[in-house]
Design a protein that fits this description.
The chain is an alpha/beta fold. The chain has a single domain, classed as TIM Barrel (Alpha-Beta Barrel), CATH 3.20.20.210. Helices cover 50% and strands 13% of the residues. It contains 13 helices and 11 strands. It has a 7-stranded parallel β-sheet. A two-stranded antiparallel sheet has the order 1-11. Strand 5 and strand 6 form a beta hairpin. Helix 6 packs parallel to helix 8 and helix 12 packs across helix 13.
């Protein structure tokens, strides 16, 4: 099986023999690892002025950085951050990576269209709108979903993309931004429609949100994504409890504590990785990752610590 096939098997909660799939939603430490700027950190203010030859050199460099990351750290999947971000540039990046690696890696991009926590300068206005014009807000939510599914049809016709990471954040460490009742009005129906539409087109879906999801986790699972990420331990989300309650319904991705990777001891980081593996792996339907991403400022050596635990202990053996 290829890494892509292992990743899909985990998303489908199918059993297999071998190492638990692994990926990171973002691996930002490409400068430290390879001496290369991460694609998301590149500035393309003059993209429209570039000749096509120069654009293609940038695309090649981005594809090579993604592939180098996946190869060195044994990622099964690559989450693409096209820069500039458009359907056309996504498809070009997909084609480049497929040309270089075939079907070795599972390829995904961001595809959420639901309301997340608003930016601070829009938060107050958004909250007032929920009360003053709820039907208009719902109409906007539906329009966002319909546009996302139209884009997905273009990806489906082109081929090469495997799925979407739905990256609207809903929760703080203390709980969801919207109450469970409001979430059920303004998010869940549209998340469900979005996921159903992606599934109908043959795509996998991974629902990401940080924070304490427990007050709305029933709604997230009922929306029927293939997987939940990141099961944030810094917000009190216990992967053992989530596995016990929902492990037969949804794949779990996570949840090595990113905070510990910054501030904890090596022993604490190792313990967090072991806890995630021990409670995520049983019965399948589990993908190993951190509880957020490998972000700028994290010590790369701490990532190596959790990878060492994963390589030694994250393996399904024959009965």
């Amino acid at each position: 099986m290829t890494p892509r096939e292992y990743f899909a098997a985990a998303l489908d909660r199918r059993p297999f023999i071998g190492r638990v799939p692994h990926f990171e939603l973002v691996f930002f430490l490409t400068m430290e690892a390879f001496g290369k700027v991460h694609p998301s950190h590149r500035s393309y203010h003059q993209w429209d002025q570039m000749e096509e030859k120069e654009r293609q050199l940038h695309r090649e460099e981005m594809a090579n950085v993604y592939i180098a990351t996946a190869e060195r750290y044994e990622h099964s999947a690559i989450f693409l951050h096209p820069n500039p971000d458009s359907v056309e540039e996504t498809l070009r990046l997909v084609d480049l990576i497929r040309d270089k690696t075939g079907d070795r890696y599972f390829l995904m991009r961001h595809g959420d269209a639901t309301f997340g926590i608003p930016d601070g300068d829009r938060m107050e206005a958004f909250v007032y709108r929920l009360v003053d014009e709820p039907e208009l807000v719902k109409a906007e939510a539906m329009a966002h979903v319909e546009r996302a599914l139209e884009r997905a049809e273009r990806y489906q016709r082109h081929g090469g993309l495997d799925g979407f990471a739905l990256c609207s954040d809903y929760c703080f460490n203390t709980g969801p931004f919207l109450s469970p009742r409001q979430f059920g009005q303004f998010v869940t129906p549209y998340l469900s429609k979005l996921i159903a539409g992606y599934r109908a087109l043959g795509f996998y879906t991974i629902k990401h949100t940080d924070g304490n999801i427990m007050p709305i986790i029933d709604q997230l699972v009922q929306a029927n994504p293939h997987a939940l990420h990141s099961l944030d331990p810094q917000a009190g989300v216990d992967i053992a409890e989530v596995k016990r309650r929902y492990g037969d319904q949804v794949c779990l991705i996570g949840n090595v504590n990113c905070g510990l990777m910054d501030t904890g001891t090596v022993e604490a980081v190792q313990a967090s990785a072991r806890y995630a593996l021990r409670h995520g792996m049983p019965g399948g339907g589990y993908i190993f990752s951190t509880s957020n991403c490998i972000y700028t400022g994290m010590r790369l050596s701490r990532y190596d610590v959790i990878l060492d635990v994963w390589r030694k202990e994250g393996v399904y053996l024959e009965d």
